[in-house]
Structure formats: structure tokens, C-alpha cells
Amino acid sequence: MKYIEKSKEPRSLTQVKTLRYPKLKLSFDNLPPNVLADLIHNLLMDQGFICCYTMDEITPETAVLVHFNPQKYFPDQELDYNNLYLALRQPDELPPAYRAGYTSKEDAVIPNYLADLRCSTYFRYNTLGEIIPNGTFRTIKNAGIIFVNLPPNSKPSWPPLKCLI
Questions:
Q1: How many Å apart are CA 81 and CA 157, to the nearest integer?
Q2: How confident is the model at residue 138 (pLDDT cuts 50, 70, 90)?
Q3: Is the entire prediction scored with pTM above 0.70?
Q4: SS3 state of residue 7
Q5: What is the CA radius of gyration of the chain?
Q6: Cβ atoms within 10 A of the Cβ of 26, count?
Q7: What pLDDT, in 10s, does the model give residues 93-123?
Q8: Tell me, what DSSP letter sits at residue 14?
Q9: 133 and 123 Cβ atoms separated by less than 8 Å
């Protein structure tokens, strides 16, 4: 993962949020097209044209606006620029096990590491391109050592994890 320093929100978003529409409740789903275009442009610049989850290159055509904290649980952050990111659009026909980024995250609430300057030290990529926490292999190796030293009646019924280091 890469730290993403956010710029100021687009002026068009600020203006739309200050306007009062008597019969319309402003939400992310009914933002005017020009505001969405400004959001995409600003976020592409902030993110350096890379997906916030997979670090793949994105363009306005391949990007999708996502809320890091799901709208379902954080409705007050629906129009918060600091909660909006761009992710690589995933094909609908791709099986869920092979999806990355926003389609696999869905409504999961996870810490927003993207706003932390040290985020690149928390994770690394394995040879399959999967994001894994730093220290994972050390933890698995230590768990394997502990497993071997357990008395037979204390061992779990599942076999220990084996991994290549």
C-alpha cells in the first residue's frame, strides 16, 4: 500500500454541499456529473493514477469512486473527500475469489492505512501480488515451532500451516 496525501476537495463539491435543495436530499448517488468528473480528476492526481487497493494503473475510464469507510455504516462520511478514493474497476464476471480491492472489501470496516505516512511498512506483496502484513511468515513459522512442541493431547485437530519462505 502507498500513502495517499489528499489535496483540498474540489471547489464544485464544496459548492454543492453548501447549496440547499428543498426537495432533494444531497447524497453521493445524486451528485451532478461535473462534480463527479472533478472528484475523479482530483483523486487521480492525489493517487498518482494508481488504484488505492491494488496499486495498478488507473485512468478515468478504468477507475471507480469508492468510499473507504462504507456508506452503509458511515452515512455522515458519504460526501467527505477524505473518505473517497479511486479503485480499479473489477469485471463483474470475475469470480469473487479472484477480485481485488473494492469488490472484495465490500462493506468491511478496516483501518484507513492509506492516510498513515507509515502505511508502506505495514504491508508487503507476495509473489502472487497479494497484500500481506509484514511479519506474517515469522508469525506462521513461530506458530509452527510452538505446534511441534505441544504434547499430543494439546495439538489441534487441524494440521499446521506450511508455507514457503
A1: 48
A2: low
A3: no
A4: coil
A5: 21
A6: 14
A7: 777 666 665 555 566 666 676 677 777 676 6
A8: H
A9: yes
Which cell numbers hold the place of 105? 472489501
Q: Which three cell numbers stand for residue 3?
A: 500513502
How far from 140 is each of 97, 148, 158, 165, CA to CA, in Å?
23, 12, 14, 10
124 strand-pairing partners = 132
Q: How confident is the model at residue 23 (pLDDT cuts 50, 70, 90)?
A: confident
CA distances from 16 to 24, 27, 67, 127 (A): 12, 10, 18, 45
Grid cell in block for residue 138: 515469522
Question: 12, exposed or middle or buried, with CB in 10 Å at 0-12, 13-18, 19+?
Answer: middle
Specify the pLDDT at position 2. 76
CA distance 115 to 47: 12
